[in-house]
Design brief:
The complex is a heterodimer of chains A (about 130) and B (about 130). In chain A, strand 1 and strand 2 form a beta hairpin. Chain A is about 70% helix and about 5% strand. Chain A is flat, with a radius of gyration of 21 Å. Chain A has a two-stranded antiparallel sheet. Chain B has a single domain, classed as Fumarate reductase/succinate dehydrogenase, transmembrane subunit (3 helical TM bundles of succinate and fumarate reductases, Up-down Bundle). The longest helix of chain B has 28 residues. The chains are: A mainly alpha (about 130), B mainly alpha (about 130). At the A-B interface, helix 1, helix 2, helix 3 and helix 4 of A face helix 2, helix 3, helix 4 and helix 5 of B.
Amino acid sequence: MKLDNGHYIRPLARYTWWTQQSSYIRYILREVSSLFIGFFSIVLVCGLYRLSQGEAEFNSWREALWSNGFALSIIVLFFAGYHSVSWFSVTPKAMPLTFSGKRVAPEIIIGAHWLLWLLSSAFVWLLFIYGGDL
Amino acid sequence: MKPVDGEAKIANSKKGSYKVSHKPIIWSLFAAGGTLTALLMPVLVVLVALAVPVGYLPAELFSYARIHELLASPIVKLIVFAVVFLSLWHSAHRMRITVHDFGLRADSFAVFVFYGIAAVASIFLVLAII
């Protein structure tokens, strides 16, 4: 398609462009992950709010999450993981590091994030389970 | 020393006509939210939503008394607040971009809806946690 300024662009379908290439699908999956992460953040806000209301309210939130919310939570976990992996993969591009004048290899930055991911997850898990005794 | 492009622009711009952009602040919050979410959201989903129903952890760990006591700690409060707050706003900002990607050309409406949801949820978060 030729524009008024003489440049050419390839026209894209406004609503379905993201189905045209696998890299577009990966991009849109990354963006859609925010819907599920945002949803789960709201679920957590609800839980904290129900906790502040009292024991019966907290327990009803808990039961709803564990029974009715189970299938959705699996989907949320998939997208949360997808976000983590894709976020770490773009970090070297968003935050290029140099060390004594040389560019740090992207693999090192990505690897460091995976290590940090593992450590912070383990920290949260152990803090929660042994929290009372720490 | 020859000034670089940006400096030359500032030098040439009329006094007072140079606006300070709010983008770095918004962007650093967005990036902090994305990183914190990436690091902690999967473990939170497994811990809070899945570990008990699959039978890996006992439900007693999630008793009202225990969670109440855990959240009484100021450090736990701060961590929970930071993760949930930044995740809310990160997601809201990203959803704004996502609906545009899906062909909805109504940015001010998207801002109203998504930032509105994040703002209301933030108020409830503060009310719940203090």
